[in-house]
Amino acid sequence: MDLAFENRYYNLDTLYLLTNEALGLSESIDFKIGKAKCYFNLGTFFSKKGKHELALKNFSISNNQAKEHAEYELELTTIDAIAYEYEFKGNFTLALKTYLEGKERAESLKNFTSLANFNANIASLYLQLNDYDMALNYYTKAKIIRVKLGKPIALAKTNCNIAHLNIDIKKFDIALKNLDYSLKIFKENAILDWLAYAYEIKGKLFLKKNEFETAVLWYQKSEAIYKELDDEYYQIRMLLGMSEALLGLNKNELSFKYANKARKLSEKLTFTKGSKDSARMLFLINKSNGEFETALQYYEKYQTLKDSLSIKENNKALMLFKAQKEYEEEKEEFIEANEELVAKQKSYVFISIGILIFLLTVLFLVKRNEKNYKSLNQKLMIQQANLKQSEKQLRYTNLTKNKLFSIVGHDLRGPIISFQELIKLHLKGSISKKEFIAFVPKLKTYIDSIAFTLDNLLHWGQTQINGLTTNPTNNIVQNILDDNISLLSEIASKKSISIQNNISSNIVSFADGNHLDVVVRNLLNNALKFTEVNGEISIGAADRLNFWEIYIKDTGIGMDKKTIDEIFNTDKTYSTVGTNREKGTGLGISLCKELIELNGGKIWVESSLNIGSSFFFTLPKSELISK
């Protein structure tokens, strides 16, 4: 087991093989603590491989077994590991709550080593949110404990993290002092993983001071150690730092090599922050090389990931605050509950004595109050029903709010920011007038996309905020289709898609004309979006007694059953890119469903992958025709 654990940074396959061998031996002699430690090792293996659900499962088994057999050291270690998995997955609420629970458990056991670890890990959460005051507060607590314990290696780790924090707030002298102490300890004790990290932090220090050559030297020291370690995740930050320092030295080709390697590792490990930072570096490198089109592509990717992470970062801050508050409230409630329980136990003794003496009186009072209890229960049930209804309404309001901010934050903000950045590049002279004009077709696409999204958003907003009313009139369906075919003709022409309108002029519906216009435009736009070049779209209608059944059929890429189930879900948005990478809000189809149903019709789809899709919807016939 010990040999397996020592291989966690050098050879993950050896870690896995030796742990399974140790587990087999432990099970053969029912060595309970051995099994608990083996499950911890397996959790470590799966964590390093990025399989966090399996890591959590094994850490939890180890934790339960450690509790059962009073192995307090292992219990605290597994709590720390479980919290770290939540942190890596982005669930900062559970991470903070678990760290706080571990901190409290360490305090109760007077295990000061673990207490320092939990303080340091809580600090790292706040450091990721750039909350430097809170981070420094917890790092200081960890440092005080480690100074008292007289453990230089643990103290060096804390100093290294404090140095990282001080670099971010540009207190370079303090950072350097902490780093020099840490480096000395890590070298003397051959703590390679932390030594690589300390070299990387020192590289970052000189990078922030624009001393690029010195930064490269320290990053190279870090890189040399990382090559010996089987741990890809921690290399990403080093690779990006090296790339930025090389770009500062105008070594663009080598800078690209490091940034691209960081991008590939980030995608392999599904590490969103790494992907975002890699896209930023690739944008800067291509911009420096004069490759403006490629630079813009990476900038768009960077902006999309940044927006996503920005929302997550805001949510993280709220979740951390909420988690800490919830944890403190739960703790207070637990203390109060215990006090109440003690008080109740005392009162039960007196009640028992009273029952023995006044049994008849108590029975009489119970009978008399039985009716009152029933009445109170009925009122309580009514209040609970009202509360559930309010909760349901609140949940729906939150879903609506989240959907609105998602659309505004991603589908409108992204194109506008890209447009803005391109104009900045032109005004700064980074791109010429000729190069700017070359981007005009793409900018027109952005504007068309924004206009289409805003139109959908306004209609959808009306249905969500006040509940949309209909104004039904007699509408010649052919005219509405012809208008929208003309409106979308440029898109169809670019993809060489033919549109055949087979609906005759005698098909007249009794529905809200504006609603019908939105539905037709969205369905036609969708068909164009998911149909390959040289494809076909056909439109027709069938007579269904008091309804017209209208269809829009394409020869596009089609959908699987899961996608069909998702697109009509009004509780959330579902969007995929088109055949030419066209983007959408995921709002259009759910909006069509709401508008068709408001006008007394139904909408559905029949689709097969790589064959095409047919959207059908029904509309009431004109009152004149139905009579």
Briefly characterize the structure.
With 627 residues, this protein is an alpha+beta fold. It contains 25 helices and seven strands. The strands form two sheets. Strands 2-4-5-7-6 form a five-stranded mixed β-sheet.
Please provide the count of β strands. Answer: 7
Radius of gyration: 32 Å
Task: List the uncertain runs.
Answer: none
What gross morphology would you assign?
flat
Alpha plus pi helix count: 25
Q: Main sheet: which strands, in order across?
A: 2-4-5-7-6
Q: Which structural class fits the helix and strand makeup? A: alpha+beta
Q: What proportion of the residues form beta strands (DSSP E)?
A: 5-15%
Percent helix: over 70%
Q: Biggest sheet, open or closed, and with what strands and sense?
A: 5 strands, mixed
Give the end-to-end Cα distance, rounded to a whole number of Å: 85 Å
Mean pLDDT: 83
Layout of secondary structure:
Elements: H1 2-6, H2 12-28, H3 32-48, H4 52-68, H5 72-89, H6 92-109, H7 112-128, H8 132-149, H9 152-168, H10 172-189, H11 192-208, H12 212-226, H13 235-248, H14 252-268, H15 272-288, H16 292-357, H17 359-427, H18 433-438, H19 440-465, E1 472-476, H20 477-487, H21 489-494, E2 498-501, E3 508-512, H22 513-529, E4 536-544, E5 547-554, H23 561-567, H24 588-598, E6 603-608, E7 612-620, H25 623-626
Parallel strand pairs: 2-4
Antiparallel strand pairs: 1-3, 4-5, 5-7, 6-7
